[in-house]
Amino acid sequence: MSDISVENYKKSVAKIIDTWAKEMDKCGKALAPILDQLAELEAVKSPDADTKKQIDELRKKEDAIQQHIDSASASLRVNMMVIDVPPQADEKELMKVPGWLKDIIKAKGIPLGKGVSIAPAIDFDFKKKKLKSFGIKVTFP
To answer: Phi and psi for 18 in degrees, rounded to 5?
Structure first.
């Protein structure tokens, strides 16, 4: 039988990650057409002034979405660091938490477009029953 305090912790974490995944989904849907248009425009061998202007505008939109992704990921990190692991939690159950976190993030992971990837970075202190660090790495092409 699993530890109820660990199960409640997992439910809280799942809710936080679900909120983040929804934001990533919005960003992914907004970013995909921008990356497609950029690829088309950058494929032009001798772009005219209008094409260069469109490329600049698309880069600005891409940067704005990147900032939103960074903000949502920072919020996720803060929320994950603030939520406390129950001190009375069974250590055997806690040993499963880092793997579970990676799995849930992968399950909630959203494809953000060409070449964009998301990877979790988790460090857990089992003696203190505390999440030492949590991060999301978003890689752009």
So the answer is: -65, -40
Q: Which two tokens stand for residue 124?
A: 């857990």
d(CA 124, CA 104): 16
Q: What is the distance between the alpha carbons of residues 46 and 108, in angstroms, rounded to a whole number?
A: 41
What's the domain count of the chain? Answer: 1
CA angle 116-117-121, nearest 5°? 150
What number of CA atoms fall less than 13 Å from residue 66's CA on the CB side?
15
pTM of the model: 0.70
For residue 43, the enclosing domain spans 4-139
Question: Residues 87-109: pLDDT tens digits?
Answer: 777 777 767 776 777 677 666 65
Strand boundaries in 1-141, DSSP class E: 117-125, 130-139
Q: What is the pLDDT of residue 99?
A: 73
pLDDT computed for residue 37 by the predictor: 92
Rounded-to-integer distance, Cα 28 and Cα 112, Å: 4
Q: Facing residues of 123 across strands?
A: 133
